[in-house]
Structure formats: structure tokens, C-alpha cells
Design brief:
This protein is α+β, with helices and mostly antiparallel strands. 42% of the residues lie in helices and 18% in strands.
């Protein structure tokens, strides 16, 4: 039997980008786009429907888009809500829905031998929802209870607080979620929203795994003809200029407070995006980042702190968030500012650059380690109007990034005075 020499470190291999497949694309007669990525070692098929039916379509009626999407699976002309859930479970399927500002997504995964049966249930929900009044009331009651709970959480309250700081009065982005506007949504509005926006126009269907022709034929024939609708256009107003103040919201019952800092960022179409994502990872995006080392490891001021970038088709932000002891939040904000200024004033050394490059390569490689994650991410590129080869741009950025480039980006995007600051908790 061969023994392991534990006096020697294991051999380290460079991280390489996995071989990424390419979608087969079909333009369906209805106008919808069908994308197929074949492969995987398991007999499983995943289907994602992405409708152009996000929150920007709801015309200031809070929760309308989210409620419509969820209620589509609470009853059809032929199935009750319990029948829908029972059938999905019987076929060993996993069904998830989520929506954001731009889109509404339905994700279905099941063993390939049962995917057609499970898909037929989902198609029934897509085409023939009845939005039963009893289930709508139950949904509103549940959401109201969730809201009551969230309003006691500093992590939730600080998000509402910073919206009021960033956006001017009257802006849709400032409309708060309240029990009143949850219960204000009417069944008739759900029916109209579904009819208007859950159409083949702007629909992308992504299939990954080992689909058979039967399931593909179902997808090709969900809609038989184009259905056009006018979607509202929306341009967010100009953001308020940061005032340098720390805006606070007191929650007496909270044992700690949450800090949230936001500055305007860029979306993935911007030429700085890939390089900037490396800077944000270095700043606060992983366990070895500047913020984690300083504020968690060296000073013990928090269990965790995160910097990231988020965007939709209209807005983009750079965020820094952490939950800390209520008496020490000012110190944490000062340390965050110090780390911003360090990145502006001092080029990073070769070892730290190599470490963040390794992390970023590993993060990308892990995303494309299986066909289902690959399909979700490539599908995200397509929905965002990017090339499926965008991952190559990200990989090239990692290869070519320099300390000078990171310092330039820090000067442009991480200046402390660019950030709005909100704190919620017992402050």
C-alpha cells in the first residue's frame, strides 16, 4: 500500500477555465427564443422561463409583479394549488420562481424521464392561472406577517432607509412596502398583468441537461402565435448627491445595527465592469479581502462584512454592508473609509494581487463546473444583452489586471465621498 508523505505539500495546479458549451438557439413562431445546452452526466433536465415581466412593468403598484408570478402557481382551470404541488412532488421535480426589476423567472428541474409530465403542470400554470381569491388572501396575509417580522430586522430596515437617502421624493424606487399596499392589490389587476406581460414577446426559454424531443416539442408549442404588448418605459431620476452624513434609523429591540453604504456603479455592459469586479473582490468580496482582514480578523468588530456590485437594466450600485455592535458602528465606518483611501493611495503588492486573481479564477471556474449553473449564467448574459462569451472577457481581465489599473479604478469608484451611508439598529 502506498503511503502519503505528509512532509511534502501537495502539488498545486493552475486554475483553468472549464470548457463551456454553446447554446443551440431556435426562434419560435411565437417570437419566443429557445436555448438548449446539452450535456451533463446525470439524466436530469432543467428548464428556465424568463419573461419580460419584472417590477418595472407594474406602474408603481407595489407587489403586483411578484404577486402575479407567485399566484400563477396557486390554481388553474384544471388544478387546485394542492394538486399542483402534489404533482410536482410526485414527479421528483423542483420548482422555483423569482422576480427582479427586469424579469420574472420560473425554474423547473426534474429527472429527464419525468420532465415532460412536470412541464405539463407548469405550462398549465403559465397559460391558465385562475388567481383564486382564497389563495390570494392567504398569500397577502403571509406576506404581511413576513413584513412585520422584517420591520424588526436591521438588515431589512437599512435597505428602506438608504432608498430614501439616494432617490428623490416621488421616485418609484422610494415606494415602501407596507401592509396597506400588499392588501391593495386586486385579483383583477393580477389577471390583467398576467394577460399583458406573460406573453411570448421577450420570453427566453433555457433548457439544460439531457432533454428529449418530447419536452422540446412541448416548449415549442406553448404559444402558437406572437402576442404584442406595450411595456412601460422607465428612466430612474438622477440620484441625490451624497451628503457625507450617517443617516440612522433607531430600532430599540435590535441587539446590533446594520451598516449599508451605496455608491453608483456600472452594469456588465460598461467597459470597466470586469476590472471593477476584481477591485471590489479585493476590497470586500471574499474572506481574504481588505475589509475582512481589517474589520473582522484584526479588530474583531464584526462576524462578516461584504462589498459587492448589483445592477439591473437601469441602475447599478457598489454596496458595503455589515452588522456590528451598536456602540461601534462609527469606528467600523471609519475603518471602511480608511480601506477605501488605502486602495486609492497605495498600489497593491504582487502577493495580494496574485491571491485575488486566484480567488476570482476559482469563483468563475466553480460557476461553470456543472451544466445547470453554466446554463443559468449564460442565460443571464443573454437576458442582459451580453455575448455568451462574456466569461472570456472576465477571464482576460483577471489575466491582465495590474496594480496601476486597480488604483485608477479605486480613485474613480471608491472615493469615500461617493457613498451614501445608512445605519439601522439600536443607535
Amino acid at each position: 500500500m502506498n503511503s502519503i508523505d505528509r512532509t511534502k505539500a501537495p502539488q498545486v495546479f493552475p486554475i483553468t477555465l472549464p470548457q463551456i458549451g454553446v447554446f443551440e438557439r431556435e426562434k419560435l413562431p411565437s417570437g419566443a427564443d429557445l436555448y438548449i445546452l446539452r450535456g451533463g452526466s446525470q439524466p436530469i433536465t432543467q428548464i428556465i422561463f424568463s419573461y419580460d415581466a419584472g417590477r418595472r412593468c407594474q406602474n408603481s403598484i407595489q407587489t403586483l409583479a411578484d404577486t402575479t408570478l407567485n399566484m400563477m402557481f396557486e390554481g388553474t382551470t384544471t388544478r387546485s394549488t394542492s394538486q399542483i404541488s402534489t404533482e410536482i412532488e410526485y414527479y421528483g421535480a423542483d420548482l422555483n420562481v423569482d422576480s427582479n426589476m427586469d424579469s420574472a423567472r420560473i425554474s423547473l428541474s426534474a429527472p429527464t424521464r419525468f420532465i415532460s409530465q412536470a412541464l405539463n403542470v407548469v405550462v398549465d400554470c403559465l397559460l391558465h392561472p385562475t388567481f383564486p381569491a382564497k389563495e390570494l388572501k392567504r398569500s397577502k396575509d403571509i406576506r404581511t406577517e413576513q413584513l412585520k417580522y422584517n420591520l424588526m430586522r436591521s438588515e431589512y430596515v437599512v435597505g428602506d432607509l438608504i432608498k430614501n437617502i439616494i432617490w428623490p421624493d416621488g421616485c418609484d424606487y422610494r415606494i415602501p412596502l407596507t401592509a396597506k399596499n400588499i392588501h391593495a392589490v386586486k385579483r383583477e389587476q393580477l389577471i390583467e398583468f398576467h394577460k399583458q406581460f406573460f406573453t411570448p414577446e421577450g420570453l427566453c426559454i433555457f433548457v439544460a441537461g439531457q432533454p428529449d424531443e418530447a419536452v422540446l416539442d412541448i416548449l415549442r408549442n406553448i404559444y402558437t402565435q406572437p402576442i404584442h404588448c406595450e411595456r412601460p418605459t422607465y428612466a430612474p431620476p438622477k440620484r441625490n448627491t451624497p451628503d457625507g452624513k450617517v443617516h440612522t434609523k433607531k430600532l430599540p429591540q435590535s441587539t446590533q445595527c446594520t451598516i449599508l453604504m451605496k455608491a453608483e456603479g456600472v452594469n456588465a455592459k460598461h467597459p470597466d465592469y470586469s476590472d471593477l469586479s476584481i477591485l471590489i473582490a479585493l476590497f470586500g468580496g471574499y474572506f481574504g479581502s481588505r475589509l475582512m482582514k481589517n474589520i473582522r480578523e484584526d479588530k474583531g468588530l464584526t462576524y462578516g462584512i461584504l462589498a459587492n456590485m448589483i445592477y439591473d437594466s437601469k441602475t447599478a450600485s457598489i454596496n458595503v454592508q455589515s452588522s456590528v455592535d451598536s456602540e461601534r458602528y462609527k469606528l467600523v465606518i471609519d475603518e471602511i473609509h480608511k480601506e477605501m483611501q488605502r486602495l486609492i493611495d497605495e498600489p497593491i503588492d504582487a502577493d495580494e494581487l496574485a491571491q485575488v486573481k486566484s480567488y476570482c479564477r476559482g469563483a468563475i471556474a466553480s460557476v461553470y463546473s456543472d451544466i445547470f449553473n453554466t446554463a443559468r449564467n449564460l442565460g443571464g448574459f443573454i437576458i442582459d444583452g451580453l455575448s455568451e462569451k462574456f466569461v472570456d472577457c472576465q477571464w482576460n481581465s483577471i489575466d491582465n489586471i495590474t496594480p496601476e489599473r486597480l488604483q485608477q479604478l479605486a480613485e474613480q469608484y471608491l472615493r469615500p465621498e461617493r457613498f451614501h451611508i445608512a445605519v439601522a439598529g439600536n443607535v
